């Protein structure tokens, strides 16, 4: 146990329950050495503020775990947090149409730097720092106590850039066979838990995929940009889309997208899958006067390709303009971002800006944030990162 003095100006923040320990708040951050150390945040006068752990994650120095001075950070602490999280998700465990969801969402479930996803009986733990990884045996024991599972995999995102450390990600139990087939609102998805940093599906978009399949895609032509494994394309195809076109720069996306179509008994030959830069695709579409009834935009927060660097903060308006230009009148754009640096209000301003620039009208139809299983902490709005807006391009 170590104490960490907090600057006066941040005392009220931690008194108010702010869960994230950041460098500027600490009087002497260099005194912190051993990741995984339990630390007491104290006022300069010595008064107790909160207890947490030291772990380097991006610009962060750790997470508050409790404001209760008599609570110890031990097996019981981890067991209680994980059991509570599992109980909260009981409707997911009893849903026969969905068997993949987030079981534990970091600070939203009381332990920052740790997420646990449930994939058809297999668990995927993501450790966001060396610090939280020091509590591995507590976490594994807590899982043992709270639920039954077939096997556990892990992702170590230790480096301060949040980068994944390539490893055999198997931890214990039974090894899965790849692809592992999961079900989500009746859609099948192929996932791989031991193949680099990503699994093939982003669980936080579940409700968006459900809406696309349920009431958006029918009889539409669909362009899915930054398509990754084509999860949105598959939901659109199952929802009755005439045709989908998936565009992603990564070579792997072709085989991965074919796989997602195939596990849903869809003929991928009736759809287009393009391995190319989306900005090149927009030019191609304009040149050939293509347009689409539904255009999906889900870029990474930052990306570097041969020709472009893209950042949500700087380039989303431009991206929207490209999309608007090839969306049919009365058609729809789904604009998504998981960038926590842009709030919903600002994101809506991007939309307003893009339509104004092109002298086009629009109407916002639906807005999605994180689903229930991605619990967030009200004191930490940065953790509520997902914003997805369904925009109708109104006939002029
Ligand atoms: N929409 C996807 C997730 C997108 S992840 C889903 O729902 O599953 C972001 C993807 O953008 C990655 O697959 C990456 O290869 C791709 N990407 C990044 N820059 C790109 C660019 N300039 N053109 C096309 N794809 C790009």
- The CATH homologous superfamily name of the largest domain equals Vaccinia Virus protein VP39
Specify the structural class.
alpha/beta
Mean pLDDT rating: 96
How many helices in DSSP terms? Answer: 11
N-end to C-end Cα span: 65 Å
* DSSP strand count: 21
- Contiguous low-pLDDT stretches (5 residues minimum) are none
CATH topology of the largest domain: Rossmann fold
Instruction: Indicate the overall shape.
Output: globular
Task: Characterize the structure shown.
With 396 residues, the chain is α/β, with parallel strands linked by helices. It folds into three domains: 2-66, Archaeosine Trna-guanine Transglycosylase, Chain: A, domain 4, CATH 2.30.130.10; 75-183, RNA methyltransferase domain (HRMD) like (Transcription Regulator spoIIAA), CATH 3.30.750; 202-393, 3-Layer(aba) Sandwich (Rossmann fold). Helix content is 28%, strand content 31%. The protein has eleven helices and 21 strands. The protein has a seven-stranded mixed sheet, with helices on both faces. A five-stranded mixed sheet has the order 1-3-4-5-2. A five-stranded mixed sheet has the order 6-7-8-9-10. Strand 11 and strand 12 (187-191) form a beta hairpin. The model has no long low-confidence stretch (mean pLDDT 96). S-adenosyl-L-homocysteine binds next to helix 7 and strand 14.
